[in-house]
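Reopening: structure tokens for the adenosine-5'-triphosphate complex, inputs below.
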Amino acid sequence: MKDRMEQAAAAPKTLVEARGIGLRRAGRWLVSGVDLAVKAGEIVTLIGPNGSGKSTTAKITIGIQKPDSGQVTRARGLRIGYVPQKLTIDWTLPLTVARLMTLTGRYGTPEVTQALEEVGIAHLAQAEVQHLSGGEFQRALLARAMIGKPDLLVLDEPVQGVDFAGEVALYNLIREIRDRTGCGILLISHDLHVVMAETDTVVCLNGHVCCRGTPESVVTSPEYLQLFGSRAAETLAVYRHHHDHTHLPDGRVQRADGVILGDGHAHGDHAHCDHSQQIPAEPQTLPEAGAGVSPLPEPAAKDQTRDPEAANAR
Ligand SMILES: Nc1ncnc2c1ncn2[C@@H]1O[C@H](COP(=O)(O)OP(=O)(O)OP(=O)(O)O)[C@@H](O)[C@H]1O
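Re-run output (same inputs, fresh job):
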């Protein structure tokens, strides 16, 4: 009895659990039947093509969007740090990194300095955000998400606008944050094939959960090692699969045997995907821009989306 209680106490706490969640807009299920859970200290990575519902799933999971089906359970008092894919802000106004840190929360200079130190950009506190490189900008956003000491960190494409060396550094930083704080991380990857090696579970979305599993251990491909170096190989891993079904324009799924599955189906409704493939010749390019922080809905109207290309160019 005592052993069982000790085991239960030692087991990582489930921070958030989504069951069968779906969101329907304009007669179409953007996502449906998605199951997802993140425990303390765990890294869960969402992958999938553009428009496959990764951001939508993350937003439902943390409560920014209300699901039309399914339910989400969050741990009591859960603190969430969120870096959305797009930051909507008026970039025509000057904004220092230190000010960015306090836009949506009241934090004193020591807290701001500590958060910036933790992501390695304390020296940039008075720099203008517009002048940051892509990697520095993402670190600033990470610091902003971390300043509230979250239990769950949700990062929507945290390496966008960053070159591959920068990606490795950022993934290392994310791993360090997880190791140091024990927070759970829900990470959305812009890349279909490359995910953090430390990822515990990869969930592949395409409107629904196509497949999930642990990432394969790092690639041995000479091309890959040549491209990224052995350090990158220690950090990144490959996760590939083959779909055995087609997605119809209305969001339903047609299996290989021709059977069409209805709305809100779960993964078990269709056959499996093959995860046994090897090594991408070349990772994919980065998607559109932007980023931001806060579990609140992003501000609207005249704000502009930041262009990471522009940030990189500076
Ligand atoms: N509020 C909305 N109303 C209608 N359609 C929406 C809404 N939000 C998202 N969509 C659509 O839902 C689909 C999923 O969008 P989502 O941003 O979740 O995908 P994603 O996998 O994160 O894409 P990307 O990799 O391009 O960022 C897209 O086709 C998008 O156009």
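The radius of gyration is 20 Å. The first strand starts at residue 14 and ends at 25. Marking as resolved unless the reporter disagrees.
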